[in-house]
Amino acid sequence: MNKPPGARMRVGLTALTMAEYFWVVNEQDVLLFINNIFRFVQTWSEVSALLERMPSTVGYQPTLSTEMGSLQERITFTKEGSITSIQAVYVPTDDLTDPAPATTFAHLDATTVLSRGLAAKVIYPVVDPLDSTSTMLQP
């Protein structure tokens, strides 16, 4: 986080470009780990502020869904290979309807929600099955 926003905003896209190289050129399956996709959103928000764009009512950049789509929609597959991604998503104030995580969740096939409430009750694993989702469970 000690780098300028312009440099940090390229990290996720650069990692994805490297994954695409192994996928397309070498026809390999690639597993891409993204430690915290929320940092990607924060960085784009900082760049948007530097460009003096008017933020949305919640404070995020007006191009949030476009920028998230530019990253998430490149994670795909063909018969020659695939890119699979496992992403950690920070959810501010545990609000799943916050625009940043909600925009991210719209692109994911499955989500596993870890609950602070279950951890406080010493119930492990702290996976909340009611908030967790998967496209495999839908007809």
Structure write-up:
One of its GO terms (biological process) is proton motive force-driven mitochondrial ATP synthesis. It catalyses: ATP + H2O + 4 H(+)(in) = ADP + phosphate + 5 H(+)(out). The protein has about 140 residues and is of the alpha+beta class. The protein has 2 domains: about 5-100, Rossmann fold (3-Layer(aba) Sandwich); about 110-139, no CATH class. About 40% of the residues lie in helices and about 10% in strands. It has 5 helices and 4 strands. The protein has helices at about 5-25, 35-50, 65-70, 100-105, 115-120, and strands at about 30-35, 85, 110, 135. The strands form 2 sheets. Strands 1-2 form a two-stranded parallel ribbon. Strands 3-4 form a two-stranded antiparallel ribbon. Helix 1 crosses helix 2 (about 35-50) and helix 3 (about 65-70) packs parallel to helix 4 (about 100-105). The chain is globular, with a radius of gyration of 17 Å. It starts with a helix and ends in a 5-residue tail after the last strand. The model has no long low-confidence stretch (mean pLDDT about 90).
Secondary-structure blueprint:
Layout: H1 5-24, E1 30-34, H2 37-50, H3 64-72, E2 83-87, H4 99-105, E3 110-111, H5 116-120, E4 133-134
Parallel strand pairs: 1-2
Antiparallel strand pairs: 3-4
Helix pairs in contact: 1-2, 3-4
